[in-house]
Amino acid sequence: MIGWIRQRRSCRKFEPDPVAEDLRALLIEACLRAPTSKNRRPWQFIFVEGAEERFRLSHCKPHGAAFLAEAPLNIVIAAEPRLSDVWVEDCAIAAALVQVTAQSLGLGSCWCQVRLREADDGQPAADVVKEVLALPKGWEVASIIGVGYPAEAKPAIDAGSLPRERCQVRP
Ligand SMILES: Cc1cc2nc3c(=O)[nH]c(=O)nc-3n(C[C@H](O)[C@H](O)[C@H](O)COP(=O)(O)O)c2cc1C
């Protein structure tokens, strides 16, 4: 596990090959095993593989979403906020878990923030995603994780450059 964490970097360049079905199944499992407050499981995960939908999702905001068009799998992380007051945290931990799982499977991934972001025309990026995927009323969108076989290799972050001052040990 620590090895995957050490090697983990965001990947925004992907080979065009679709993610193999067995790996996709493991990513689905990782999402559904994520812990949630009070075990409410307020999330909804939409695994998007179609090129046209991915292209439209990549335009949900002007910066930091373009890689979604190239990523053969877009995992849209949404939730029903009526089910939990901490759905944002629940979605975030699912996103982190699926990214580490992707890493462990030799896949690359990158987070695209949707919640609190805006499209070119000023409308919420989440509204664009809701429209593209025809999500039911009452669902909110947290993020989209782009996943695929990496077409770029980034070096691990050097242990010596970690911001150690951000972490205190108080025996
Ligand atoms: C909450 C969150 C939101 C992020 N949003 C975006 C995004 O919208 N677009 C993007 O390209 N990367 C996004 N990232 C990835 C970060 O830019 C990336 O993790 C950071 O620059 C550190 O690089 P590394 O992941 O390679 O260590 C996001 C990451 C997090 C945790």
CATH superfamily of one domain: NADH Oxidase
> What is Rg?
16 Å
Element-by-element helix/strand order = HHEHHEHEHE
Q: For this entry, what is the oligomeric state of its chains?
A: single chain
Number of strands: 4
- The share of residues in helices is 25-40%
How are the strands ordered across the major sheet? 1-2-4-3
The number of helical runs is 6
Mean pLDDT rating: 98
Roughly how many Å apart are the termini?
26 Å
- What's the architecture of one domain, going by CATH? 3-Layer(aba) Sandwich
> Could you please say which CATH topology of one domain applies here?
NADH Oxidase
Indicate the proportion of strand residues: 15-25%
The CATH class label of one domain is: Alpha Beta
Structural class by helix and strand composition: alpha+beta
Give the names of the bound compounds.
flavin mononucleotide
Rough shape?
globular
Profile the largest sheet: 4 strands, antiparallel
Low-confidence stretches: none
Keywords:
171 residues, alpha+beta, NADH Oxidase, 4-stranded antiparallel β-sheet, 6 helices, 4 strands, binds flavin mononucleotide
